[in-house]
Design a protein that fits this description.
This protein has 172 residues and is mostly beta strands. Helices cover 12% and strands 42% of the residues. It contains 2 helices and 12 strands, in the order αββββββαββββββ. A hairpin with a 2-residue loop joins strand 5 and strand 6. The protein is globular. Residues 1-17 have low confidence and may be disordered.
Length: 172
């Protein structure tokens, strides 16, 4: 009986703590390059944390959703995750590493370090930025807008609704 109750508890716990989805929308005329980070933000050091860079950009007008680190198959994919379990304990893991599944259950999407590139190769000034929680214990950055001192060519938004994270970037 104890074994059955433990199994039911384990399944219930896994379902409650499965990693959430991040939805990324590129509503600009540029290509969007993403470097995503997930972490356990419930502790003071945000470990474990995972960092991955997409293979290819999300094209103008495109979108992508990542439902986790393990075997993520959206296009563009993230082939490798840099996993930090503690200070000086960093390991690179491919997306088919079974270790990523339990890590996804104890972490959530934290931030996106992104930049834009012109499909025609032109230079885009002021196009690198970070949105979300950019450091453990720091306040969340939910919006980035152009200013007179930093004339970004975009407006960017990061928000969570219904347990899913959204990143939207649009032309200014």
């Amino acid at each position: 009986m104890k074994k059955i109750l433990f199994s039911i508890f384990a399944i219930y716990t896994l379902q409650l703590s499965a990693q959430k989805t991040i939805n990324i929308f590129n509503n600009t005329k540029y290509n969007l390059h993403n470097a995503l980070m997930g972490a356990d933000q419930t502790n003071s050091n945000c470990y474990p944390s995972l960092f991955g860079v997409s293979n290819t950009p999300v094209p103008s007008g495109g979108a992508v959703s990542y439902t986790g680190y393990y075997n993520n198959s959206p296009n563009p994919s993230i082939p490798t995750w840099s996993v930090t379990l503690a200070v000086n304990n960093v390991t690179n893991m491919p997306t088919n590493s079974p270790v990523l599944t339990p890590l996804g259950m104890s972490t959530d999407w934290m931030m996106n370090k992104f930049f834009l590139s012109d499909p025609n190769g032109a230079t885009i000034p002021y196009n690198n930025e970070t949105i979300g929680t950019i450091g453990c214990g720091l306040p969340i950055i939910t919006e980035i807008h152009p200013t007179s001192s930093i004339p970004y060519p975009f407006n960017a938004f990061w928000f969570v609704v219904g347990g899913q994270t959204y990143f939207n970037i649009e032309d200014k």
